[in-house]
Amino acid sequence: MNRLRLATTWLDGCSGCHMSLLDLDEALLDILAGVEMVYGPLVDVKDFPARADVTLVEGAVGSEADRRHILEIRERTGILVSFGDCAVTANVPAMRNRFPVEAVIARAYVDNADRHPAAGDGAAAERPAFAFTGVPRLCPTARPVHEFVPVDVFVPGCPPAAAVIAWLLTELVAGRTPEIGGRSRFGA
Amino acid sequence: MSPEFPKKVRSDLNPSRVLTFRIDGRDVSARADESILIVARQNGIAIPTLCHLDGLSERGACRLCIVEIKGSARLQPACVTYPRQDMEVVTTSERVVAYRRKILELLFTERNHVCSVCVSNGHCELQDLAVELGVSHVRYPYLYPGYPVDASHERFCVDHNRCVLCLRCVRVCDEIEGAHTWDVMGRGITSQVIIDLNQPWGTSETCTSCGKCVQVCPTGALTEKGRSVAEISRRRRFLPYLQMMRERRDER
User: Do A61 and A145 meet the contact criterion of CB atoms below 8 Å apart?
Assistant: First the structure.
């Protein structure tokens, strides 16, 4: 039997959608019988494989690395699933979108730091620009996956309920491309 | 905002015209002063709405209740369109449903509706409409505008990021409470509901702090302080009740 080659990935999100996937509990065993996990945070594979039948994408596209990753995934994937609100709407990661990236970085790593060499009177104004050394450069805005690549299935939800994921995977294993309809909604 | 047909006492001298027309192929009868929306609901035909609220005047603001009328190229909002004899109305054609979805998606793009962290999550008419109309994603680019939150009132907050400009707050404040604290400024996509002369809510001299606007808000734009994500609940039964009492007074 040809098992479904399933990849999952985690872009600009909180991993909650993957947690919801694990929340299927014993139902996972039946589904996994028809699935081969080929990539994702749940398996120890470094590079995206040459071919995946289905990829579940959690998270928005928020950095240059996310953007490159999603383009590669699209090329190598049969059915691409926007998995959860961050992938579908950009959700919470997009709440930074109204602010410049520099302000976001400063807020996260400098303004609220207890101890920082640059802290002190007037020092903030002289602070050098954040260099993004060793970490992916943030895009000006975090945006939904389908603004970058064509998406085949949309599963809103923050996170999608385990029952919805079970239904989704069962449909995919059966070789169908499911239409989510009103099964899941934006938000929790 | 006076109703299109002022309510008159009906008698033999002043009979209300009754006419017949068709909705989705069904023969229905209606008084001439009943909108297509009201007649549809009387006959168990559901038309989605957002700005409509029983007890308030109709505004025709959201356009979600658009229907097709045979012989008319334009779609008409059912809440402010009145039947004519032998009119043929279609409420769920492919064209109508496609437009309703577009309207809803555009509402999502115009402000920052982050359902997962919204005080109205699970009690939101916008969120429910997305499910009802099968909107699983938004095909238009989100605008991510920078709207403020005004928490200057001691009991209530207004978060313009969640506002859909249904103007229920404006109507309930004017028509039911009689204060007319709320109004609208700007045009088109930059319209915004405002307090008095566009000032912080806490500084309003006309607001009676009755909270009716908070109770009628369909989304998480108007909220009570002290409520966190998904914790809001709306109490709206007062509205038909107040209106009924007012009508009785008029008849005396």
Answer: yes
